[in-house]
TrEMBL record, chains A, B:
SUPFAM superfamilies xrefs: cAMP-binding domain-like, Winged helix' DNA-binding domain
Family matches, as CDD domains: CAP_ED (cd00038), HTH_CRP (cd00092)
Gene3D superfamilies xrefs: Jelly Rolls, Winged helix-like DNA-binding domain superfamily/Winged helix DNA-binding domain
Protein name: Crp/Fnr family transcriptional regulator
Length: 247, 247
DNA sequence: CGGCAGCTTGAGTCAATTCAAGGCCTGTGG
DNA sequence: CCACAGGCCTTGAATTGACTCAAGCTGCCG
């Protein structure tokens, strides 16, 4: 999976031209000149489901933009119990700045494409461009919000509510058009039942039973185990446990 | 503890001189001149346990340095179920930058002292000093690490493991001297049993039972319901569920 | 074709909850 | 000074939601 023809003269690197993350991801923080220098160090990768992104011996993956696919971040206890502590979608930035040891593992949940860069290049660029650091900061704040939302789900919701909340979250992240609360939404689950259970702190059997129940109740339809259609998102929302009431 | 000795042309504000957060907190990012301007807008507050920090109608609390005490961050479902999604200790910075609506409530768990500043002052200072934003970024990354650690606890640990993990975390955050794994550590619990249960996703009865069990097993001693002594931290650690295995 | 991984479903079990009662402090008012 | 009320905490007994164990289904791949 090599790409990197080094392009020194053109205003904007060819690869970046058509890049999904050119404007929306962290690269949007860079001006053309910075982008050119930065792009010299980047490489594209494709990773199949189950492939490790970090935790293995490949330091080039240290930092990446996620261009497509879903990445799961996991933590594991020594007896094998596992918890998914985050899911990342494009155009998220992958990697933990300012720390060599990541205490989490990152793994491709679906087939994934990355634009990767060496740690040093990112950290140099971050010193140079406060705007880049600013974007990373904002993403981190969003991840923290997501993490805390998931904590409520893990600590205080019932199994039916957990599964409904998961579907709602996935539906919102994988939507490919307008999302009206009343228009049908459909998507492919990026995770297996076992992975969903690691996300929600349940067992795969319980996840399966709850999905069956939602299907029986007419809240969702499922084809081929993975493809889900939600006719009414608001009906699904009702099953997520009462919304948080600020104040 | 001399206050008047090293007076520069831009004297450091008197209040900041003896401030616990002068160097360790976010204020450490500011040079004396910046600090002087910044300090003009700050006010100190003392808040008793149970007092709300945000979520109420007092915008002056929007951002603060936590100088002493413990603050709990909570989320609540509409039927009253509550989850503590974070605990903050001095010299943490309180507040969610770049967002007017915080989806979480912050409340004093113990008696708390704050150094507060208006939102606008912080955001102005942040534009001016990338170092300030950098420190906030780093704290946020640490909070994210903590949040993900807690997710494992919430999703995958048993009640005994949860309570042991909580004690370990508190012990490490409230330690007031050297912490050897084998030397006795003691501290006051900053939370009631009910609050601990909201932190761990349990009921107060279960928390109480597990504390009783740890006491009966000689892992901890408890005086006055709140004061805990851990003779051997490593023994407590053994009850936290296997440590995460990176890779 | 067999083997395997992922998924579903059922039956029985158990950890944590709910419900209930009582003890221990602390502050308050007679 | 004591009596009393209200938090907070502990403990017991009964209940239950999710888990474990087990069996069978499906689709895919060699």
């Amino acid at each position: 999976m090599t790409v990197g023809q080094n392009i020194h003269s053109s205003p904007i690197p060819v690869l970046c031209h058509s890049c999904e993350a050119r404007h929306s991801g962290v690269c949007g923080a860079l001006d053309p000149d910075q982008l050119v220098r930065f792009a010299e160090t980047t490489t594209r990768h494709k990773i199949e489901p189950g492939g490790a992104l970090i935790g293995d011996a490949e330091p080039v993956y240290s930092y990446s933009n996620l261009l497509s696919g879903v990445v799961k971040l996991t933590k594991t206890l020594s007896d094998g119990r596992q918890q998914i502590v985050g899911l990342q979608f494009s155009p998220d930035f992958l990697g933990r700045p300012f720390k060599l040891e990541s205490a989490i593992n990152a793994e491709a949940a679906t087939s994934v494409t990355l634009c990767s860069f060496p740690r040093a290049a990112v950290e140099r660029m971050m010193k140079e461009s406060p705007e880049l650091e600013h974007r990373l900061f904002k993403q981190t704040l969003n991840e923290l919000d997501d993490a805390r939302e998931l904590m409520v789900t893990l600590g205080r919701k019932t199994a039916p509510e957990k599964v409904a909340s998961f579907l709602l979250m996935i539906g919102r992240n994988m939507h490919s058009g307008v999302d009206s609360a009343e228009r049908p939404t459909c998507f492919d689950l990026p995770l297996t039942r076992a992975e969903i259970s690691d996300f929600l702190g349940l067992t795969n059997e319980t996840v399966s039973r709850q999905l069956t129940r939602l299907r029986a109740d007419g809240v969702i339809r499922i084809e081929n185990k993975r493809h889900v259609t939600v006719d009414s998102m608001s009906r699904l929302e009702q099953r997520c446990g009462g919304r948080v009431a600020p104040l």
